[in-house]
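Tutorial handout. Part one gives the primary structure; part two gives the three-dimensional structure as tokens.
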Amino acid sequence: MFVPLENPAILVGVYFVLCCVLHGFIGWISSIFVPDLYYHFRLSKPSLNIPHAQHISQQQADWNLNITSLIAVCIMTPLYTVTLLGGFSNDSVEDRWGMHGISGIHAITLHIGLSLYECVAYAMIGKQIAFYLHHVAYITTAVPVLYFQRFQFYMAWFAMVEWTNVPLCLMYLFGSLQWQTPRTISGILLWLTYIPFRLISPPMCVYQILTEMSDGHSNSVTWVSEDRTINTVWFFILGISYLGIQGLSVWWFYLISRGMLRALKKPAKSTKTK
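Part two.
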């Protein structure tokens, strides 16, 4: 390894810088291969009261962000999946709670680095404060996992939601390129992956955690920090973060489903008119 795994803060910094460099590189490549798109993004809202040059700059940052995030997620989420599968192969509750493998370390540090990068990109794009909250929630819960070297398996389980970001990013990119059929397919895949990965998997993970914590035979190993106060505070933050993110997921699923229904109704209306 080119950096010591004993100091994950270095890995977080490396991944943050790599994301920022990739953001700039994608902008440079896009300006060469898709200049008509990259320099002439259409106004998403005609009444948008911002200078045209600022709008173009924000759209370029959004384009770079989506491709950077797509690449990072396609590396990070398989690492989480390897960690998760490794945990399922352990019958011992103690082994699952004490997991601290290389794939999990890289997945979590990359995730933190990506979250920090996306917060910077959000500022460039002018996103609302709500977009930052799920990143703050993740970083707050992930840092202690790295520090205390426990709970990696369950962080990987929660992180399965990231699989939905692959069709989400593709839907944006295909939409920007005005490739309607691939965009439609990406939208369907987003809806199909959303149900198992965002609506079903996280509650199952919470149920498993609570079951193991309430088991009298295993509650002596179901902790993140040996300090009871730190442990209690951390689990409280995890619970609040879970409720907030799960609430957002349900709301986003409603919006996605409503958008799909609207898209399905359009052909029916046009057929009626004819």
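Part three, for discussion. The chain has a mean pLDDT of 88. Residues 8-273 form one domain.
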